[in-house]
Amino acid sequence: MIYTAAGDSEGTLGGLVRLGRPERLGPVVNRALGRAFWCSADPVCSENLGGQGSKMANLAACHGCILLPETSCETINHGLDRAMVVGEPEARQHGFFVNFIGQP
């Protein structure tokens, strides 16, 4: 899921405003969280909680799952952690949104 913090006179990234409507945003968030349970680089991605990326600030976040091109992210992907959102594979109950969507 991409969130834009800076728009201009032309709007923001082609219709993201329309996706913010409740009837559209709920299903989008639910699908995004469901996909966050798995990364093609797992178990390495979710086990690398010692830090990676810029200033070792990213935990479970790699180019296989959630990193965006630097031009798309104003904070240059700093501080991302997929495990914080959906939990670690062996401890899903620690994920922030696990109760929202349940187990995969």
UniProtKB/TrEMBL annotation:
Identification of the protein by name: Uncharacterized protein
Organism: bioreactor metagenome
